[in-house]
Amino acid sequence: MTDKVTVALLFGGRSSEHSISCATAAGVLEAIDRDRYDVIPVGITHEGAFTLQPDDAARFALNTAKLPEVEDNGSRILWPDSASTRELSVVDADGERSSLHTVDIVFPILHGPWGEDGTLQGMLELVGLPYVGSGVLASALGMDKHFTKTVLQQAGIPVAPWRTVTAYEWAAAPGDILESARGLGLPVFVKPARAGSSVGVTKVSDWDDLDAAMATALAEDDRVLIESMVPGREVEIAVLGGRPGEPARASVAGEIVMNGRDFYDFAAKYLDAPGIDLVCPADLTDAELAEMRDLGVRAFDAIGGEGLARVDFFLTSDGFVINEINTMPGFTPISMFPRCWQESGLSYPALIDELIQVALARA
Q1: Which of 18-22, 203-207, 269-273 is the least confident region?
Q2: Is 16 a catalytic residue?
Q3: Exposure string for 91-110, b = 16+ CB within 10 A, e = fewer
Q4: Of the residues 134, 270, 293, 353, which is catalytic?
Q5: What does the domain layout of the chain look like in residue ranges?
Q6: Residues in CB range of 137: below 8 A, 6 or more apart
Q7: Which residues on adjacent β-strands are paired with residue 333?
Q8: What is the pLDDT of residue 275?
Q9: Mean pLDDT to the nearest integer, 255-282
């Protein structure tokens, strides 16, 4: 039997999606093949401290009554001080230092800023640690809705009309912003440029509500998108990057069906709020699915994606429009990304294995 691969699983983080990252960690800790992998759970606190956490899936399971979080237990992870070693160490709460052995691959399952946006990926590259998922540029592009749209538009891929507003522009001339936004029509969605899980997003059906929506979004980011609502079905597809020399591939599609809720917000995604049904596989014709798969892979390639992504679409009467790309999508066992792959014949444990093996091959 070959030696096990040592995986450093990174989760938590400083963003408002901290708890969702913890829930994703619970899913991975529960499902990863322990005959093949040794896992070092590295939890990042709300303040950004890297800590050694218990290898206990139940500890981080999603609980709607109390969302999971990384508690500061006093330990501190020490990363390699150069690219010549992959050894991880820990200093415990009493100041004792010990080795966690050599890490073969890092699996960062953080969502939002300081985790999904290229910052953590840059740190890992500086110390020479290979990791699962997209690199610095693709992570930064996928995190920033404005630049995602700009790149996709340049690649000839349809996106929803939008206007990007900075905090300075809004403070200096809100009336001018309102007048320019009117051209987008109502309703519009107001979104932080760099946030996920629908955090800070508001649907605006009356221009009198724009001020409050901007305040909500600007609490998350200093750049905000005002985006036209695209009437159509909300459909999503999962993309897996290939090994060197292999193309990316796409799963079957899933659909978010509204039945009493304005949009697919944080509460509906994670707190079991009513008004949303997740359907997978989505009811599409063979031609529609083929086109969606092609657009999903094209979008993934356009931003230079690696590893994984979920691509979100609207299916309108005129065809597909891409809403956004998530380079580290929700990855709990019931999230749409693994669900789409399960419906495509790849189980949750097999999906984790594939992501790790692809990252090792690319390293």
Answers
A1: 269-273
A2: no
A3: eeeeeeeeebeebbbbbbbb
A4: 270
A5: 5-131, 141-159+231-362, 162-228
A6: 118, 303, 304
A7: none
A8: 66
A9: 69
C-alpha to C-alpha distances, 203 to 144, 207, 229, 292, 321, nearest whole angstrom: 19, 11, 9, 26, 19
Distance CA 322, CA 158 (A): 6
Is residue 197 part of the annotated active site? The answer reads: yes
Residue from 234, 310, 323, 335 carrying the catalytic annotation: 310
CATH number (3.30.1490.20, 3.40.630.30, 1.25.40.10, 3.40.1190.20) of 162-228 reads: 3.30.1490.20
Per the annotation, the verdict on 17 as an active-site residue is yes
Amino acid at 128: G
pLDDT of residue 346: 97
Please say if 330 is a catalytic residue.
Answer: yes
Determine the Cα–Cα distance for residues 30 and 349; give it in Å rounded to an integer. Answer: 9
Separation of alpha carbons 346 and 344, rounded Å: 6
Distances from the Cα of 251 to the Cα of 87, 191, 225, 239, angstroms: 36, 27, 29, 6
Q: What stretches of 242-310 show up as alpha helix (H) in DSSP? A: 266-270, 286-302
Asked if pLDDT for residue 150 goes beyond 60, the answer is: yes
310 has catalytic annotation: yes
Q: What is the pTM of this model?
A: 0.90
Q: Active-site residue 236, yes or no?
A: no
Alpha-carbon distance of 310 to 340, in angstroms, equals: 10
Architecture of domain 5-131: 3-Layer(aba) Sandwich (3.40)
Work out the mean pLDDT of the chain and round it to a whole number.
93
Fold of 141-159+231-362: D-amino Acid Aminotransferase; Chain A, domain 1 (3.30.470)
Residue by residue, DSSP assigns 191-230 as EETT--TTTT-EEESSGGGHHHHHHHHHTT-SEEEEEE--
Q: For 89-146, what is each residue's pLDDT tens digit? A: 999 999 999 999 999 999 999 998 899 999 999 999 999 999 999 999 999 999 999 9
Task: Choose the catalytic residue: 324, 335, 348, 353.
Answer: 324
pLDDT of residue 1: 43
| Active site annotation includes 73 | no
Span 23-30, average pLDDT: 94
Q: Which of 330, 339, 344, 348 is catalytic?
A: 330
8 A C-beta contact, residue 165 and residue 223: yes
